[in-house]
Amino acid sequence: MYVIWVVVALGALTGAYALFGAESAPATQSASAFGLATNMSEYRQALVGFAQANPSFTGSVPIKTLQPYLGPVVANPIWLNYVQPNTNTGYAGSLVIVYASSTAATAVIPAMEQLAQGSAMAGVAAGVSIVSPGNPPVSLPAALANGIADGMPVWMAQAYE
After folding, report:
1. Close Cβ partners of 53 (under 8 Å, ≥ 6 residues apart)
2. InterPro entries per the record (predicted)?
3. I need a labelling partner for 34 at 20 to 30 A (CA). Which of 91, 94, 111, 122 fits?
């Protein structure tokens, strides 16, 4: 008889613990936001490949030109890009910038920052800079300064060998 009461008490404690634990569990990213962030990452990697193969290119890379570097990935049309060779930096390579063209992409920001592992090169546009939690602002190239709407996700990379 006592064993039944012990089992019931332990079951009640386990159930209460599970309920309280679920209330304090961190919220997970929605599948669509994480998928969009992954697509942005793949698009950025394709742009890095393009910039490495074309080190003197400056400007926006058309999607048809970028397709060989994307492989089977279908880039979301929400992404825009800009490539600029490094100048006055002391090393070869290019700066690659991927940014969103629509406010619908703002949901991707937490997932993008998670994929970037807190990098200062991933954040939101704020005037002439990119800002991200815990990092100093990173300046955008002059061609894009104030050209990206504030609050839009921006992910930059250095393309060099």
Report:
1. 69
2. IM_PilM, PilM_N-ter
3. 94
